[in-house]
Every structure is written in structure tokens, then in C-alpha cells.
Amino acid sequence: MTLPPTLRPAVGLWRALTAKSTGLGLILALGGLTLVGTLLPQLPDAAREDPVALADWLAGVRPKLGGLADVLLRLRLLDVFHSPLFATVALLLALSTLACTINRTPGIRRGLVGDDTTGERAVQRTAERTLAHPAVRLERSVARPAETATAELERTLRAARYRVVRAPGTGLVHADRFRYAALATLVAHAGLVVVLLGVALSALIGFRDADVPVVVGDRHPVGHGTGLTVTAEAFADSYHPNGTPKDYASQVRLTDATGAVVAAGTIRVNDPLRHDGLAIYQSTYGVAAVLQIVDPTGATLRADHGVPLRWSADDGAHAVGVLDLPELDRQLAVVSPASGRPDPAIPPGTVRVLAYADHGARLVGQTLARAGQPALVGDVQVTFVRERQFTGLSIARDPAASWVWLGALLLVVGMSVTFALRPRRLAAQVTPDPDDPACSRVELAAPPRAGLAEEDLAAHLAELLDALPPPVVRPVPVPS
Amino acid sequence: MLTVSQLLVAVGAFLVLIAFTATVVSLVTARRVPVRPAARAVLVGAGGPAVSEDAPLGMPQTVPVRSWYARVTTWLALLALTGALVARGIAVGHGPFANQYEFAVALAWGLLAAYGYAAWRDVAGGADALGLVVLPITLAALLYATTTGGSAGPLVPALQHHLLLTVHVFSAVVAYGAAGVACAAAVLQLLPRRPSWLPSERVLDQLAYRSVAVAFPLLTVMLVLGSVWAERAWGTFWSWDPKETAALVTWLIYGAYLHARVVRGWRGQRASWLLVAGFAAVLFTYLGNHFLGGLHSYA
Hints:
The structure holds 2 protein chains of 2 kinds. Chain A is α+β, with helices and mostly antiparallel strands. Chain A contains 11 helices and 20 strands. The two termini of chain B are 22 Å apart. In chain B, α3 (100-120) packs across α5 and α6 (201-234) packs antiparallel against α7. In chain B, the strands form 2 sheets. Chain B has a two-stranded antiparallel sheet.
């Protein structure tokens, strides 16, 4: 049959996606890319969107990667999992899996229909085919007439939990187990496709704001069109006697646009607050400096404003927070000794404040601000009011997560059934012994890919035949 | 209880050493006996049917006589490690899978359990030989455990979900054990000159495949449960953490093996190399926290 020219590319694509090597090649390619992403340091989320953070991060990995750092970055190998190459391979794998699943369905269906046992003729055909093309065939004699032996065989097979169908008058018997388990492989592959689609949908329609710092007592709008606001009411961290962390807990409240509380509770690691598809997770914590900012005209720009000291300085000995004052083209960096790292230059009850202009490019002043005492930093008056804790929250809504879980469930169930319940098919023929009508011969056969390895299959068939009545014992003539 | 647990680990290691020695001796000196013909097999190859009085077609004609002492010492070692894990679980109050020491002992347990199961279900008489590779790996895991110290500490907040900790890591333990057995069968297949007392390539291939048939679904369960836990603890079901991605690489390698075997008919050398790579990925995933860091750095 000649294909219309317009269909040829589509058919070519279909053939490529369902080719035997395509799936294997794509799995190995995805594995290779994932291995690269495991071995090489990968860009953190913040560095992906912020050139300054990217430069800082690159400076950190250069000692390890040397001159290769820039080349690897350009090749997207330092951001493999967000690269077009990785997305393309994952997409092609999803499409190939889907195409192969569709492609295999008729074959599996034919397999089920091919074992048609709905009528006498069909049973006969199926059993004859198995006996004609077996992978393993065993036979033995039985000291019973054919009809009785057939009944005994049926009983034996049923005891071994086979579904047994006989073609009356032919001595042919068909038996199968886990017949419909052949469909499980389709379920598993469909599950993988659903997982991959769910992950893609998650990226498209969900959102996740990681490590949102909220100073205790402050509110933070959730955004993303939710109209919700989260308030951190309290934070507590506790430790075991040996100093390892025991618990991080934040008391949070979620309010809607009218100010009504829609959800509230204590969140911990492993115990988020959930409301209408939105989830708030305990992520990080730290200390915030509460500042009061007055501009050169004497107007208060920020009153009791908490600046989370959420970053660690390069020396690891200081915690740093940044307050942006776009109305003055100023950025204030607030520096305090890191927990457990006292610095005599910044004694308790003080913070160092540095003022930058030109989007952080030019330092215009710095001071050591003492608690409760106004101090000038450049032309801005800063008062360090007190320290307060902040809690770092992750806020996410992922409508596609349920698809991912559904796909994962299909994958696990389908795969487990595929490996645990291998469909088995047997055929038997019982024929009268031509020399002795009181005896008969039983043949038991299994086709290739009968659900067991041949070693197991041969042992299994032997076991089934062993369970039949004793074999014929004929007297041996005694020499006179 | 911690002391009892550590004592049992030491006893287990000693028994593994004995089991290995016993396995070598029993394999080299084993008598082979013909398979008892249960029924007459009809050979179905070219040239028409012929009746054989030998073992049924597909079964080896002879099997080695299994030495009881190699098996018994293996089971005793498994028993000792089971006792060690139970005692430690009682002492620490959660599944004993929270640090490198506990996981190393659990990995040794998984290897012995998977090997014991393979030997128990063995029809073709080849699984005993897998001990030549599995038992040294088990011993190495136990020796590594002793280098990490056996001290027990409280769980960090991220690990404080006893059910998920137990089920997620236990599925990894059994999957890794089965992966180790598959790797053993692959290594024996890759030997350039296989002694006559080792199982045939065909028997080893079957043993490897069956082990992966156990390991792969459990690796999937491990990844899925890990995602469920990550969503609860970290707010995202996947974060491309190094240990996560290394586990994904492992899963993809075994997926490639199954795909290659079923669709492309890979057997022998090529399939064996994939299994060796798979178990290397298992070890890399397990030990990776030492040099990869990431969210799993406490494990």
C-alpha cells in the first residue's frame, strides 16, 4: 500500500518512536545526562535567575572545575536538569513509551483473544497450537482410562489454581493462570507516561516559592492570584543534649483577602499546613534585625521592619540580610555574627549596616548600629530596634501532583503484577493407550514465553504430571 | 541493646566469612547427581520429537549436591544480622536505617536475605555459586560499618517520620540486596574462563533476571516513597538532590537492562555489564553523600 506523501513523516516518526532501539537509547541517554547532573555541581535556583548570585556561585565552583567551569556552563551541563537537551530526551522517552504502549496493545489483545476459550472449537484450536509449538512438552502414562485420566488432570490443574477448559470429545485441555496479568505491562508503561506528564504539568500550572523568609509577627502575601496572606506568629527551635536539632516549629496563620482566617496551625518539618491545594512547609529559620529607617527629609520609610539575615557571608562567620529601598536608590546590607561565631567588631546588641547606591555597585557608607540608637549610614538614618527570629517557609500549590501520584501508583502496581504474576498457559492431550484401554497417555505442553523460565517450566510440568495417578506397571516376563 | 546489636554484627561478619569458605569448599568438591526424571521429556527441537529418559527438557541434566554447611552458616549469619537490626531498632526507637552504620548493616542483611531467597527458590542448582561474590560484598559492607562507628544519635527533624523512614529505606535495602545478587550472577558470567563447577551462563542469566525482577519494582517503590516523603518534608516531590538523581540513574540502568533483555534479547556479556553498572550505581548512591552533599547529607 502506498502512503500519501503527507502521512509519510508521521509514519516515519511513529516507526522511529516504536523502533526497538529507540526506547533503550533514550533510557541510556537520560541515565547518562542524569549521571552528569549528579557528578557535576548544579546551579541553585537563585543563581539561575540572578546574575550576581550566578557570578558568586561560579566563583565558588571554579576552584573545583578550573577553566572548564565556563565551558560546562555554556553547554548547560551545570544546569542539566533545566536544559533543553534533558527536556527533549525526557519528552522523547515519554512519547516513545506512549507509542510503544499503544503499539503493543493489539499484540497483547491478540494474545488474550488468541487464547480464546469461549467455544469448543476455540479451545481445541488454542490447545492444538500450544501442543504443536511447545517450548517444553512432557508426557507420561497413567493407569486410568482416558476419560478418568482427563478428569484427574483437570482436578490437578485446578488444585494448582489453573483455569481449566476442556474441548469435549477431543481429549484436549487448555489451562491458564493470571491470564489478564499480561495487561499489567501496559498499566506500568502508561503509569510512567502519566508521571512524566504530571511532572511537566507541575512545572506549567503549579508554583513553588522556596525559602520565603517571614519575620515573626510579620505578614507575607502568598501571591500567584490566591489573595491569601500568611502570618508567622511564632517560631521555636529545640535541640537534643548533644546539640543536634530536635524540632523546628512555626505557628502560622493563613488569611484571605477579607482578613478572615482560613487556616492556622503549627507547621514542622514533615508536617505542613494545607489549605485548598496550597501547602506551607517549614523550610529554614534564622535571625532578623528589626530596623527603623528615616529618609534625609525626616520621613519614616520603614517602621519596625524585620530584615531576615538569611545569607551566610563568604567567611562563614557572619549572617547577612539585605533591605532594598528603591525610593532612595539605596540597598542596606545588615551584618551580624553567625550563630556561635562571636565577632568583637560587632558586639552583642549591635549590627553593622552598609549602604549601597547604584543597585549595590557603590558603597556610600557604613556604621555599627547599636540597639535603640539612631545612626547615619550615608544619608539614611537607621535605628536597630532589636533582633527577632524569622521562619523560612516554602509555599507551593501543585494541582498536577495528584497526577504524579496516580502515575506512580499505576507504575508500581503494573510493574509488581508484571513481575509477580506472569501469565501461564498450558495445553494437555489425553489419549487412550492403544495396547490397553484401561490406560492412557497424558501429554502436557507449554508454549514459549509461558510465564516461567524453561527450567522452572519443566520442573512445574513434571510436578503436575507427578500428581497424577501412578504410571502403568507392566509385568516383566520372567525367563524360564 | 546497642552492645548486643554490635556483638551480633561481629558474629554475623564471622559467620559470613565461614559461609564464604564453606561455599568455596562445597563448590569445588561437590558431587553432581543426575536430575530425577519426573516424567519423560519430549525433545521438541528440529528433526521431530524424540523421547528422552533424562531430565525434562530445559532442566540441567545434573545438579551439584548442595552442601548443608554452606547454607546453614549463611542462614545463621542472616539470623545474627536480623537480631542485630532488631536489637538496634529497639535501642534507637525507630527503623535502624538512619545513618551510614545502620544502612551498611542493613545492606549486608539485604544481600544475605536476597542470596538466601535465591538459593531457597533455586531449581537449576546454580544459586549457591553466587555466594562467591555476594558473601565478600556482604563482608565488606559489615567491615565498612565498623569503620563508621556504631554510635546512635537522635533523628534530625527531616528523618522524624518513622513509617516512611522504615518503609522507604527497607525497600531500598531489599532492592539493593537483590541488585547485589544480580551483580554476582553477572560477574560470574563475565569470567573469561569459567570453571566447570560454576553454573552455566544460561542458569546465571536466569538468576540475574529473577533478581532484577525483585529489585526493579522495589527500586520503584523506594523512589515513589522517597518522593512522597520529600513532598512532606521539603515541599517538593523532586528536587534533583544528588542522592535522588543517583537513585534515578540506578533505576534507569535496571530499566535499560530489562528493556534490552525483553525487547532486544540481550543476554550474556552485554546484559551482564549493565548489571555490573547497575550495582556500581547502587554503591555510588549509597556512598555518594560523602562527596556529593545535598539534602540527604545526614544519611
